[in-house]
Structures are given as C-alpha cells and as structure tokens.
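Issue 218. Parser rejects a valid record. Input:
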Amino acid sequence: MRTTGKTKKLFTSKATFTGVFILGVTILVALFAYPLATDKTPDANTIIVELSAKPAGFSKQLLLVPKTTAPAHVSSWQAFWSGTPSG
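Output the parser choked on:
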C-alpha cells in the first residue's frame, strides 16, 4: 500500500493513530447505537405507571390477553432500525 506524506505521518505517530482510532469507534457506536439496543419492540416504553411506582420486590399477578389480530409484516430493514411489533 502506497501512502502519501500526511497518511504516513498519521500511521507513524502512535498518539495520533490512537486518537483517530478512538474517534472512529465513537462515530461507529453513535451511528449504530439504536440498532444495537437490546429491545426490538417499536413501543418499548409501554409500562403500567401504577406498578412502576411500587418499591423494589413488589409482585402482582397480571392477566395477559393475547391480541386478536396478527402483527403486520415488516421488512428486514425496518425491523433492523425500528423493531418488530410485539404480539
């Protein structure tokens, strides 16, 4: 690989290379932070306010009623960026 003067200077200085590497990793994390999040549902913040205000260790029995309609099909690109409907 043939390098120019500026590029050669970039790779010879350890501090400069480390700074550029950290900057590159930071940019990649900023761009892909949302898809890397663990929750894949589009409306992830659907909590029951009354239960979220209770102290730690509180337990309650809930009746889960299944949805009557099937969730709409989403493309893989939309699922990657926005998640898939729960249900």
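Fixed in the parser; the record now loads. The helical segments are 5-12, 14-36, 49-52, 76-82.
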